[in-house]
Specification:
By secondary structure, this protein is mainly alpha-helical. It contains ten helices and no strands.
């Protein structure tokens, strides 16, 4: 509950960064009007909780399938993270499609998908799914593989305090994971924002269009907004947890202080 509450409060604070990332990727103008900027916020909160829940569950399932009753090793853990991330990309894609359509055209959490299904058929709900699955699988795997290495180097080589090293390593791991998966995120966002396929058709066509317009850097449009989103999320979640813990769980906190 503490993590969920902190996550939702954080999303309410830095959601404009997500909106601006998506707009930048699609080559759309950035709005600073709150009613426009906060379109799709509720869907984003559902996506945050839902994707995390599916990811934790599916990673656990794959860990059991891969390792069985034996102690899981690093390679197996990373493989399970890759598979679990891939599975979480399926519902995540639908939720992000709804959010992006709301960001662009408004509408309710039910009305937005109903509108595009009425115009383009039920198959439109799968638009961007492959790229979302790829992004989530590689992001989860990179986080699990890169973060421990960075944390170990910071603590052992640079003699950082363990708690600081763990925090900085996690943040750097998130930055690295976001950067390597950003081209897939950009292609996905453009495809989901343009369900009519006026400019962005399939995966290959969308990637080619982005590169043709801006070179390879076109695949990395909006990366600065995504990095800012991760950084502020990391900071705000911890701050909200610190403030909410004594309110939501007063007795354990007081006992810990004693």
């Amino acid at each position: 509950m503490l993590g969920t509450a902190s996550g939702i409060m954080t999303k309410c604070c830095n959601y404009p960064l997500l909106n601006w990332k998506n707009a930048t990727q699609q080559g759309l103008p950035i709005s600073f009007s709150p009613p426009v900027v906060y379109r799709g916020l509720f869907m984003a909160c559902l996506n945050l909780g839902g994707t995390t829940a599916v990811q934790f569950w599916s990673v656990g399932v794959f860990q059991k399938l891969i390792a069985g009753k034996e102690k899981i090793n690093s390679t197996q853990q990373i493989t399970a993270a890759f598979c679990g991330g891939m599975m979480s990309g399926i519902p995540c894609s639908l939720w992000e499609l709804t959010m992006i359509q709301q960001q662009r055209f408004g509408g309710s959490i039910i009305g937005a998908p109903q509108r595009i299904v009425a115009a383009h058929g039920i198959s439109v709900l799968g638009r961007g799914t492959i790229m979302t699955m790829g992004r989530e699988s590689l992001f989860t795997m990179a986080m699990l593989g890169a973060t421990p290495v960075m944390q170990r180097e910071l603590i052992e080589r640079f003699k950082m305090d363990p708690s600081v090293g763990l925090a900085v390593g996690s943040l750097l791991g998130a930055f690295f994971s976001a950067t390597v998966t950003h081209p897939m995120d950009t292609i996905k966002t453009c495809m989901q924002g343009d369900v009519e396929q006026k400019k962005y058709t399939n995966i290959r066509g969308t990637g080619a269009s982005l590169v043709q317009e801006n070179g390879v850097k076109g695949l990395f449009k909006g990366l600065s907004w995504r990095i800012a989103l991760i950084a502020t999320t990391f900071f705000l979640v911890n701050k909200f947890k610190e403030g909410l813990a004594p309110v939501m769980f007063p007795e354990p906190t007081e006992e810990k202080k004693k």
